[in-house]
Write a structure and sequence with these properties.
By secondary structure, the protein is of the alpha+beta class. It has one domain. Helix content is about 35%, strand content about 20%.
Amino acid sequence: MKNISIIFFLVVLGTCCSPKKSPIEYGLEKCHYCKMTIVDQRFGCELVTSKGRVYKFDATECMVHYMDAENHKTGEISLLLTNTWDSPGELIHVADCYFLQSENMPSPMGEFINPFSEKTSALEYQESRSGRIYQWDDLKDKLESKIGSR
């Protein structure tokens, strides 16, 4: 019986401290980087550390700027999530998204970065509004190099 209690305690302890996403309260929460209120359900982002700390952002570039400014190491980050045009309000792993950068599609911080959960949706918008489609690693590298050149 004592062993079962210990196992139960360890399982509960492990699940309560595991990193997980936290819903964004649109119109109430502020971007951790720029301090603007997060209002648009197509652009909100979230970084969750391996210790379970959650940082919320109003745009992709704010999350990248924050990661760069705070020198976040890959091992410290458990989750990187974003909202998308085609699934507003739903947080999706950035690695599963496609990011259309098009000057014909404004975004909150002026970098014209528009996330999509489906490649076909990104391609449809690209066809009608031009721009370039990136996957997460390439977009992150592009934004980081832009930060470094300032």
